[in-house]
Amino acid sequence: MGRVVGIDLGTTFSLIAHMDPQTGAPKCIPGPYGSNLCPSVVSVDPDGKIIVGEPARERLLTQPDRTIYSVKRLMGRGVADVQDELKLFPFRIDPESRNVIRVRLGDKLFTPPEISAFILRELKSWAEKYFGEPVERAVITVPAYFNDAQRQATKDAGRLAGLEVLRLVNEPTAAALAYGLHKQKRGRVAVYDFGGGTFDISILKLISTDEGEIYQVLSTNGDTHLGGDDIDNAMMKVAREAIAREPLGKSHLPGEAVQQLRKELIRAKHELSGSDRTSVALSMAPAHIDLAIDRSGFEDLIRPIVARTMQPVKLALADAKLTPKEIDEVVLVGGSTRIPLVRKTVSDYFERPPHCELDPDEVVALGAAVQADILETGVKTMLLLDVTPLSLGMETMGGVVAKIIPRNSTIPASAQELFTTGVENQTGIDVHVLQGERELAKDCRSLARFQLRVPPGPAGLARIEVKFLIDANGILQVAARDLRSGQQHTIEVQPSYGLNDEEVERMLEESIEFAEQDFAERQMIEARTEADAILHATEKTLAEPRAAGIAASELSADERRAITESVAQLKAAVASTDYKLVRQRIDELNQATMRLAEIIMNSALQTALEGKRLEEV
Amino acid sequence: MSVTQTRTNATGPTASAKCWSCQAVATGAHFCAACGKIQALPAGADYFAFFGLPQKLTLDPAALEAQFHKLSWKLHPDNFVRASEFERNLSLERSSELNDAYRTLREPIARIEYLLLHLGLRKEGTTRQQAPPELLEEVFELNESLDELREARAEGGDTAALRERLAEAQQNFLQKLEDVDAELAAVAREWDAALDSGAGESQRSPLLARMNEILNRRSYIRNLVAGVQKELTEV
Questions:
Q1: What is the model's pTM?
Q2: Greater pLDDT, A607 or A208
Q3: Measuring CA to CA, which residue among A463, A13, A460 is closest to residue A227?
Q4: Which residues in chain B are closer than 8 Å to A433, comparing Cβ atoms?
Q5: Rounded distance between C-alpha atoms, residue A161 and residue A52, angstroms
Q6: Contact A501, A152 (CB under 8 A)
Q7: Which residues of A touch B78 (CB under 8 A)?
Q8: A514-530: per-residue pLDDT in tens?
Q9: Phi-psi region of A290 (alpha: psi -120 to 50; beta: other; left: phi over 0)
Q10: Long-range Cβ pairs for the range B57-65 (8 Å, 24+)
Q11: CA distance A477 to A257
Q12: Would you call B92 and A469 a contact, using CB atoms and an 8 Å cutoff?
């Protein structure tokens, strides 16, 4: 079956971790550049080659129109949802796309799950290299406040990357799992998770039972569009205003300059967590900027953003029926919690210093590895009981939403609804499923619409029971049953956002092609390396006077021509992308040089033996 | 979101009287006594039975929580990742039922509503919208004040005095809500006593009818309070 890994598919960085059997502790797996962090950046070459992580991040500067970052912000969302985002991010959305966004990278279009799948595939390859065996099953983390469509999109991404997603785990809950192992905590814990693109707060109760530890989530809240990116954007705005005041500053900034500026500002942001002042100097025509930033100016700038995190905190506490004083431990997660103002805001509110012993960038991936281990070996010492972040409802008369599963219900959770016809000979009953807390359907997130088909008959005769079930991943399942016949009732669901099954299937086929392409690429690299070695050896031999002398005296003209031709043909093959051709030409060159090699070997042997007595041999 | 076609159902005909795995006689327990395999939910089971409890309305919250945790260990899908798809679905069904049951039974009012719903005395989502006779006068006054407030707001007039009057009325109704809850708790205790003494249908059904009537009144007052709250918070 292979191992189960834990993956934190983050807005800015992604990580992969596993439970180390030697230490019994979770551990992150490093990538080829030595770091555990894989920048969540994907770039597409003109020839279709996919580049992920650190090398892709470098391309943000050199090839911004072929490179995408923060794709997590687009997961499970429609075009109408991301209009605000588009003002700040250089995403190039295909104007044709509606309920599934399609992003243009170079001359190709990709959906967010496909792009996320490239990141997952990269992480998977890190783990496979590390273990020396295939990795096919994973636990992937999602922001606790992700809705059904965002979760489904994440699951689709896993599938497209060739991973069976055993479980989606909420990020703050994963962090609590990692911390629990680390500290054996008890009582009520608040996990404040301020990452690159999302903010989550979860309130948990840690219970010791005879069977083991239970991590029961009491409530969760958050904002799927509040993160370190917003701080970067606020800094960008100030910097661009400063540029605009410069002569020529009003002219359009090229993509490269914008990315360079963003990179510098992020560096400055990081520096301000440790020092009181920093500066940003950038000269890239037509932009020129020389900004001095001090800690207090930075804090004034980001105070409104940090303040926005406190509203979800208050709501989560109210739902858990707790006051800030009743919280025993506060855990900080996510890179943005390194900012001193964030730490101060949290510790002032809860009146206690927060925990930050574990690396806030790694803690979620480590927790995912803990859950992966639980699923792999069975529930033994820990059990996680998570909740659904948003209420599930149905549209009723007048566009009002009737809630059927309240938010913060422990999952799996279910509700059954009975449907019947209102008028005679009605053949269908429309059902509209939504997620959210608002009263009107138009203000909630539409999940899906479907129609229950019924045979014509008197009003009220049909009796169709629909079971809505939110599974342990927080994803909704719907099943319908005709109560009169007892038969399963077929429903065709049109998801409001995200991919339908056929689309996922088609992408899956394409991703297998990608996998083949990856394989071909690796083969090509290996064949090229071998060809280079043999070409180098052949040319070196022929350049050597003694060997050249042997070739001239011992080989026929045909044999000599065969060698020159084979060398030329192998060189031509190396320039192509056909690894099979390279292999064939290597074989041909080996054949052509075989007799020459034999003669040289023999002659070398003779030389070596000359002057030595027989008994020495 | 996904559509499932193979799921068994809580009240479905798939819940059989025999263990699906070893054919031993099913007792309605979570696991088969003979082979230990997880079982389908039997038809017509209620949340009380799921926890192995009688249909009594007074519950020890700590004992209920402890039982919830105990059952979670056994039924949670985490335990069934490597089981067959059929067993995974049974785990999903049982653990969702467990969570639904706990969510309902831990709240005293929801517990009573559920009992009435389960016994067929109450329909989900239906609440009588007529004012209870004894409240008619006060409700009439309240509605008048609400109209005045809306009018004053539309004309940009001074609303402070009206707001104060409404806040007072709201307090009055909140007090009534507390009274109603006390009344409901008293009848619930009567119901438990009737169950303990093995009282028959003729003694039990008037108690159920009374609880139903009180719940209707409660829901009416709650809507009233919520309505006032909405007007007061609107600027």
A1: 0.80
A2: A208
A3: A13
A4: 1
A5: 13
A6: no
A7: 167, 374-375, 378-379, 383-384, 472
A8: 666 666 676 777 788 88
A9: beta
A10: B57/B108, B57/B111, B57/B112, B57/B115, B57/B188, B57/B189, B57/B191, B57/B192, B58/B188, B58/B189, B58/B192, B59/B105, B59/B106, B59/B111, B61/B106, B64/B102, B64/B105, B64/B106, B65/B102, B65/B106
A11: 47
A12: yes
Q: Tell me the Ramachandran region of residue A24: left when phi exceeds 0, alpha when psi lies from -120 to 50, beta otherwise.
A: left
> What's the DSSP call for residue A324?
G
Catalytic residue among A85, A193, A213, A232: A193
Interface contact B69, partner A, CB < 8 A: yes
User: What is the pLDDT confidence band of residue B99, given thresholds at 50, 70 and 90?
Assistant: very high
* ipTM, 2 dp: 0.85
- Asked if A327 and A190 count as a contact pair (C-beta separation under 8 A), the reply is yes
pLDDT range class, residue B12, cuts 50, 70, 90: very low
Average pLDDT, chain A: 86
Q: What is the pLDDT of residues B120-165, one digit of tens each?
A: 887 655 555 667 777 788 888 888 888 888 888 778 777 787 888 8
Q: Alpha carbon of A511 to those of A40, A114, A507, A514: distances in Å?
A: 19, 9, 6, 5
The two three-digit tokens of residue A420, written as one number: 């019947």
Q: Tell me the C-alpha distance between B210 and B207, whole Å.
A: 5
Instruction: Kindly list the distances between the CA atom of residue A295 and the CA atoms of A234, A277, A554, B23, B116, in Å, as whole numbers in the listed order.
Output: 15, 6, 80, 72, 61
Chain A and chain B share a number of CB contacts under 8 A equal to: 112
- The answer to whether the beta carbons of residues B146 and B227 sit under 8 Å apart is yes
Q: Taking CB atoms and an 8 Å limit, are B1 and A475 in contact across chains? A: yes
Measure the CA dihedral A118/A121/A123/A128, to 10°.
Answer: -160
